[in-house]
Amino acid sequence: MTRRYDHFFSGREVKPASGRYIDRRSPATGEVVASFAEGTHSDASDAIAAARKAFDEGPWPRMTGAERGNIMFRFAELIERDLERLARIEMEEVGKPIRFARADIRGAIGMTRFAAGMATQIHGETFTNLGPDRVAFVKREPIGVVGMIIPWNFPADVLAKKLPYAMASGCTCVVKPSEFTSGTALEIAKLAIEAGVPPGVVNVVTGFGDPVGEVLTTSPDVNLVSFTGSTRVGKRIISNSAETIKPVALELGGKSANIVFADADLDAAIDGVLFGIFLNTGQCCVSGSRLLVQDTIADDFMARLVQAAKKLKVGDPSDESTDIGTMIHADHMNKVLGYIRGARDEGADLRLGGEPLDGGGLYLAPTIFDHVDPKMSIFREEVFGPVLSASRFSTMDEAIALANDSAYGLANSVWSSDFNTVMTVSSKVKSGLVWANTTLEVAPQLPFGGVKASGYGVETGAAGVEEFTVSKTVLMNSGKRANIYSL
């Protein structure tokens, strides 16, 4: 049965001004699984107005942190109550295996609970060293209306990296999910109302980037834009925000490296490399899409890696045993296939995969290239698919140089049993995240963000709440002065 959604703002469903809907076909079966309202300029403006009114006049920013936190704990409970239903929606719309969709929803619950607790922890500073008759304090206040643009690869997970942290600070929000995967954002917004969040605090307007995203990034009534997506779109958002001097927080592309040294636990490294690139069919900003392996073990490691990859199950996302699901849509699959053809033309050694698989859906075989030269496109550009490029290194310095030979700086992983190697590499690679002897692990209390072309700003952790606040200094004079110039 097809799920049909209108927009959701001011605490209610709102039909699109256009009267049109966008059908989402399952990438696994081709069947229509959902229809989303096709937003217009006026729809986006109305959603922003709802958030603006809720911030300027509503109770949410004026509640105590404990009051907001209590409602948000209830919000998390409701997401947990509906975990299976939300996971099924993610599975249908994204094409990811159901067990990983459940993990995403569990992650969203954890982040919502952490943010709920942080609502009582937002505090400022007091300065008592300004003289006997003066004292000052610095407050952290909610920045205002936050526009959130969510990608299609991890809809609930990325939403939870933004929405509850902004809510904890007292902000109101307008969410623009991907036109491919809007279901969970709309369902979660309804749960916020059920939890007791006042109308207008959480608003969702669906549709295409133009016009909906354009309105969010240019409106003077939006005080901050938080975006996760491609570097190309991130640059446009920066440009759009300039007219209103609007701050933006950007989590953009990546070209992460898994750096495997000869002294690593190779079984663990093989498992980590495969998970790092093939999770969500490689459609992940922090995918370990570059394997850098020490030359003394490279031949053996690659042979074992290829054999392990052959055992991964690609297929029906609803099957509990499936490891790898589908690509998001046909155009993206063709783009990834273009990178594969280009890598072969440039002389990379194709060790596995490289072709679509039969089965009626958008299935692409796990693909591994060896002997990839750093000048090749597959080494330098974000493929965003189940495609691993492997290169060799000899020394630690060479490994660090190869890892840093990228426009991106989101994440890297290092595999070694030597503490000095781990500490040296983690300090010298240029990325916002470094994993040691693991990969793709996150926690609600840890900050998440990148450097270079991977963006700026921080999500999650205490810093992720502070991202949605502004500081205000209040200086008080306790004495009386006849002349202000006597200061």
Give the percentage of residues in beta strands. Answer: 15-25%
Number of domains: 2
Q: Could you give a short account of the major beta sheet?
A: 7 strands, mixed
Record the strand order, biggest sheet: 15-16-17-14-13-19-20
CATH class group of the largest domain: Alpha Beta
Q: How confident is the prediction overall: mean pLDDT?
A: 97
What does this structure look like?
52% of the residues are buried. Strand 2 (7-9) and strand 3 (12-14) form a beta hairpin. This protein has 487 residues and is α/β, with parallel strands linked by helices. Helix 1 (41-57) runs parallel beside helix 7 (209-218), helix 2 runs antiparallel to helix 5 and helix 4 (98-118) packs parallel to helix 5. It has 2 domains: 3-252 and 454-473, Aldehyde Dehydrogenase, Chain A, domain 1; 257-436, Aldehyde Dehydrogenase, Chain A, domain 2, CATH 3.40.309.10. The termini are far apart. The protein has helices at 41-57, 65-81, 83-94, 98-118, 155-169, 183-195, 209-218, 231-241, 266-278, 298-310, 330-346, 377-380, 396-404, 419-428, 461-466; strands spanning 3-5, 7-9, 12-14, 21-25, 32-37, 125-127, 134-142, 145-149, 172-176, 202-204, 224-228, 248-251, 257-260, 290-294, 349-352, 367-370, 387-393, 408-409, 411-415, 433-436, 451-452, 455-456, 469-477.
